[in-house]
Each structure stands twice: as structure tokens, then as C-alpha cells.
Write the C-alpha cells for this entry.
Amino acid sequence: MIVFTLAAITSYAQVKISGSVYDEYLEPFYNAKITSGENFAVSDEEGNFTIVLSSNTLPQTLIISAFGFKTEEVSVISFEKKVNVVLKENLLLDQVIISASRVPERIIESPVTVERLGLADIRKNTSNSFYDGLTNLKGINSREGSYGFKSINTRGFADFANTRFVQMIDGMDTAAQALSYSTGNFSGVSELDIQSVEILPGASSALYGANAYNGIMLMNTKNPFDHTGITTMFKSGYTSQEAGGNNPFYDVAVRMGYKFNEVFAAKVNFSYYEAEEWHANDLRNKEIDTNELIDGTINSTVNYNGVNTYGDESFRDLYDYNTESKPIPYGTYLRRTGYTEAELVRNNFKSKNARFSGSLYFRPFKDESLEIQLTSRLSLRDNLFQGTSRLAQRNYFIGQHKLEVKGNDFYVRGYYTGNNSGNSYDLARTGNALNDAVISVYDYADVIYDQIYNQEKSVEEARAYADRNRLMPGTNEFSKEFNKTTGRLISDGGSKVYEKSSYTHLDGNYNFKRLLNDWADLQVGASYREYNPNSKGTLFNDKEEKVSIEEYGVYTQIQKKFFEERLKLTGSIRYDESDNFEGNFSPRLAVNYALGEEKNHVLRASYQTGFRNPSIQEQYMFFDAELKTNVGAIGDNLSRISYPGSYYVRWDEQNDEYVYDTRTVEGKELLNNALLTKSVFSENPTYLEADYKELVPEVVKTIELGYRSMFRLNNETNVDVDINAFYSKHDNFVFSQDIFVLNGGEVYPYGNRKATEKELEEPQNKYGYIVDGVVVLDDEATRTMFSRYGALGREFNIMTNAKSQVESYGFGFGMHTKLFSDFDFGVNYNFIDFTYEDKDYGLFEPNFNTPKHSVKAQFGNENLFNNFGFGVSARWQDKYRWVSNFVKGNVAERTVIDAQLNYRLPSIKSRIKVGGTNLFGKEYYVAPGSGKIGQLYYISWIINN
């Protein structure tokens, strides 16, 4: 009797109710969470659920929620009646983010500007991929270096190697190991696994440390506890370009997620694409040293260095042949005939990328209070990349492995990133080696001089004669020398890049909010990273001695609300230190104030700081080139450099005459005994001192104001508005300065001050080069500079800090609404500009590389009629100047229109999308030297997404 009574009571207590959850299109909503008190259930693939109610009394309230959707509350008034619920997408301002403060908060409450791409935005995207679609966000720029490589940036000052912007996937930095910049989405997230993307424009070092200078992007992937099943994508189409023609591309992806039980879940992703690169065939001419675009063609000038021709970088001044009878102006530079990019990639412009990721998830307590994640990401690619040169990346591999433990109040994670450059090679070095195999630039100059000035031939005729023995593409001789060069390391005289670098990262965070009884959000965190670059001297100065760098950081943040949670104050500070640099503090202060009855009008103001450690390549650069050597100006790198047996001129007291001798030029002389190259090699030399110091981190300080709000136009229509403005001051910009170091003597031994009479009478100065009482060159330096063999010394490009101070400022406005209830409409405008005061003799120019004005708009409807939808995006930006170590020049304004049509097939859980990018538009350059971007047309089929 007792047993039956207890059973009856239990049965009576466990009242169950069933129901269904749908989306706005009345399709079954999978994996929605239904909660009743402490009990919960999730909807199945058909949207159905059954839940045990928390009590047996009526009425009761069910809470139905899903990430990215509005939470609904349903009142249960009958145990027999089935519950039906429709979940709608979150309003933009209600969307939850974590990037701004490292804690979940509504985007409207963010203390700084945030741009976000959610699942709904990804579904409506008109671009070829979600990553391409990021460029439609306000203030976000994408540098499309090639079909596969896109570099995301905010607020200027970046080229393709964007070391001032941090990109993360589930908290894991995607930086290209020792190069310190992200490789776009090559090793990133599949189209099927992306949950959301959050971008913080501007300095974010207070929470995220070094290199979060221009901003940070967090990509969040789907958790297999919440997103299960098998999803596939098949995409194909073709690209159209005048230089490359029409070429097909293929893109496939599969995601498998499975929840074994409440404790264990797993997911696997695989994707692969193959496409034709945008062919780079920019044949415009560029100037020696400055790399500025100038007039001239291969047949009109001896000084021709085509942007996308390689092997024509070395030069000789024909002024060396100058005579009274045949005068030749100073600066008549001769370059050899180079090879085109098509010739040096052997007409193989294929871009390929295979990505795999696998993750295991454990929840020991069957809920989110403790979760353990083990993740691996692998990527293999062929691609073309533009940095200081153009690189052909072949079989380039990246692997990342992460272990993370996180709970409601903390996380601890560690990850390892390693890469292998495969068979990658440098196009410029390849072209130079092919030319050197036949004729040196000095012998080439002899032939050209004779042909033009003695034989009176045209430039075209002279080149044809000088190139008569040239290795011709397609011949066995060319192939043999090409394979020899690309198979030999750069450090051994070839063009092959070797990099098997890695780094290890640890970081953690704890939030004391619960321990403080919700008095405030108080966080403490720390991070540690160890870099282990390994290039065998092809990228870094590590051929003879290993490079290893450690860095760490600690931070804290407090956030508290006042006055009925209308006022929110945020204060953060972080301290970072790296082996080669002194410690750096990064504070941030922010204030929010919410107006209106529903607190939907939020004013914000913040002061933020950021810094960037020079990349490992900038620190340890050492490219010993034919004409000048590129060197990173930190003490450890300079101490590794020396040039024994360097000829100079000195006074021999024993024989009472000047003699030629040798000595060892040391690396430190690049900073304490150098002249500006431009002031030495000109018609009227001025011999200016190159007064630069060791590299230090770049620093930015930013003041930002903003306003985010939602206005209700009527019962069905809202308008979301976001306005922001900022002003930034930048110090210590890293740039490349061209210097000349003499093999002997001292330059400016007393600095720029006038020497005393006693100092002027000293033997080393008495016969030196003196201007207005300033000793410019002492005696040995003077004799070495003006020797009968010319100036005895070496040219260097040193990576150092500019003395010029840069200021940038900008303004942005964005709005989004629904037109006629169902049509999505959004538009944004962004203005950004910069100024700087030149203190570097006109030799520094910031790589701002950003249009001053840009306008973007989106319009569409996901369900125009009978499961049919469409979307259109348009972007306009004005012209801008591109500055990089590879080339400098202007980029024309452009208008780009993307569009897509989509059709849903609910019966087979599919969506078919047909679209195109740059429709009706002209081909355009993102930067000189990159391939012109034409049109892309695609059709995709996604199943069970």
C-alpha cells in the first residue's frame, strides 16, 4: 500500500505537457530550450518537445529561448492543451555580445563600438561567404589580396600583412605564427559552423593585450550540445576577369554534430574549395627605393620595374658611364627585363584550401556550469600572397590545438599553433636568380650602354639584344633553373621560403561577480605566450642562432551600474611585457548612460589605449639582398650581424699615407653610425645623420563617443540607430628607413652640435668633412666616403620607429529597420582620415590605406512569397592612397553590388541560393600589384542548416 501510494504521488507530481516550436516562417525550430522552474527540455528536429512541469498547479509559465532569438514566455492554463510557440529573431539592440567586456551583455549596453554578424545576417548574406560579407558592416574594411586571402581591418593603417588587428576563433588567436598577423579565414571557420562574429573597431589592448591596436574580431562557432545533426553545403560557379578569363570554382563543406548524452558531445567539420586566383598583371612602372608608381614601360625606359614583373629589382646608374662627349644624367637607372607573374607561377593560378576541425565537449555536471573542450584545426592551402614581395604559397600547412576548461565564472585555455611553409617561394628572388644565371646587372648595363649610346639603338632594340640569351619560359633550360632556384632556401641563394614555426599560448579569466553578491562585475585575467620561429634564415635572422620570445600580460576590469541601472561605469587596466621590450600599461575607462523609459537610448564615452609589439619579422628581419639589406632594429638582432673584411681608408702613420685596410662592421653601427641614403646618393648630397633608436612598441590613445538607440515607428516597425565618433593619437609607428653605413670612420661624432676649436684640431677631425662647424664625417669616414672606388659602405633598410606623430579621426552612422513589415533595410556611412607632422625627412608615410568616405546599404526579404527570398548589398567608397613596402599608388573609387536569390525547400530541409558579386561593376584593384577583382557567380545548396 505504501509503495503504491508513493508511486501515485510521484505520478501525480510529474505532470508533463507537450508542444511545438516554430520559426517565423512556421518551420520546425530545432534545439530551442524550454524551461519550467528547474526543469528543462529541448525541441527535437520536428520542433516538438515534452517537459515535466515544475508543479501541478495552474497557471504556469514556460520560458522558451534560443541563441539569437527573442525569449518567449507562455502561460499554461490547461494540462491537456498543446503549446505552440513562434520564436522571432532578436532585435539588433537585444543581441548578446561578449567581446566588449568579456562578459555577456546586450549590444546596446556595450561600452564601446561593436559590429556584429549573427546567424540571421549570415543567412541573408549576399557575398560568396560569411567572411566576405563582413565588409558590409559599418567601418569594416576587407583587403582582398587574392581569391582566398582577405584581411579584415578597422580604422586604417594596415596592408595585407595586418599586424595591428587581432582575429580569434573561440578565444584562439589565428595569427600566422611568427609573422604575427591573421591569414584571413584560411585556417578559420566553415560556413556551416559559424555562430556569430563580433568586431570591436579601435584599440582593445586593455582586455586583449598586444596587437589589438586597430581592433579585434571574435568568431564564435556552434556548440554540438546545441547544434546537432549533419549539415552539408555544395557550391559552384565561376569567376570572370579580363586577365584570367572565365574559370569555374568549387566549394564543399560538411558539419557533423552529435550529442551523445547530457555529458558528452562532439562535432567535425571539413571544407574544401578550389578556384582560379585573380590574375595579377599590373605592368605599371615603380620607382627605385620609394616603390612609387611612375610613368614608363618596358620599351620606353631603361628604368623599368613592373609592379607584377620580377627580376627587374636590381639596378645600376648609367651615370657611371658619364663622359663629356656622352653626358648621362645622374639617376639614369637601368634595370634588367623581368619575368611576369604568370611565367613565375608557371600559369598555375589555382587557389586551394582544405580545412578540417574536430572538437570534443564534456559537461561533467550535465549543464554549462563546467565544460571541457578539446579542439584541433588543420588547414592546407595553395595561394598567392602580397607582402614586401609576392609569394607563391604551395602546400602551406597550419595546425592549431586547444584545450579549454570553462564554467559560469571562469575559463582557462591553452593552445598550440604550428605551421609549415611547404614549397612556398618568393617571386622577386626567383626572377632575380633566373636573370643572374645568364647575366649580372653590371654586365647587362655594359651591353645596354653600348647599344644605346654607341650603337644608337632604341630602348626596345637594346633590350632585345641584351636579352638574346635570356632563359625563356617553357624551355628545358628555364625549367631546370627555375626548379633549382625554388628548391633552394633564400638563405642559401635561392627563393624557397622555409618556416616551421610555432607558438604556445595560455590564458585565463575569473569573474568575482557571484562572490561579491552581484555588487559589481570584477574580473581578473592573465596570459602567457612563447614564440618559437624557425626559418633557417629565410625570414628571420635565425640561421646560426635560434630565436625565442616570451611575453605575458595581466589585467583586471570592474564594471558597475548605478541609478536604477541607467549609469554603467567600466574601468580596465592591463600590463604586458615582452622579452625585447619594456613593460606597457593599457588603461580603459568607459561610461554609459541609458535614457528613456525602456532604457533603449544609450550614450557612451570611452578613453582607450592600445599597443602593438613589432612583429617577430620586424624584430629579427635580416634579408641580405644584392643592393641593400633589410634589418630589424632590436639589440638582439643587431648583435647577430657583422661584416668582417670590410674595406675602408685610414691614415698609416708609419708610412705617412692613406691606405686601404679591412675591419669588421658591427650591427650596432646601423643605429649609431649611419647616414640617410637619400642624402648620400643624390646630385647634391647633404649627408644627413640617420638618428634612429632600437624598436619599441607602437602606442595609440583614443577618445570615443557614441549613441545607440531604437525608435519605435509603429507597433510593427522599429529603427535601430548607431552613431560613433573617435579621435586617436599614434606614437612610434614602425616603418622602413633607408640608411647607409660606411665601412670605416665615424659620422657625426658629436651629434648635430658645433664642435669646439679644440675638437676641430684633433687629428681624426682636422681633415674631416665639416659643415658650419659640425663634424659630419671624421677623417677616416671622409676618406672612405670619397675613395677612388666611390663610397665604401652598405645600404640597409632598417625597421625602426618613426619620429613623426600621427593623428586619426572618424565618424560613423548606421541604421537598420523593416520596410513594409517584411523588407530588411540597412544603411551606414563612415568617414575616416588622418594627419601627421613629418619629422622623418619626408621618408615616412603612414600606410593608412583606407578610403575617406564609404557608404554601404542592404535591402532584402527572406520570405517574399512561397519560401522565396532575395537580398541586395551595395558598397561605395572613394579613392584612396595605398602605401606598402611593395608598391605605393592611388586606388580608384568603386561601387560594388552583390545580390542573391534564395529558395527554401522545407520538405528536404534545404536552401538553394543563386548569387553574384560585383554585378554590373568594373574590375577594380584593392591595391596596386594585387589581381584586379572581377565578377563571381555562384549557386549553393545547403542541406539541414
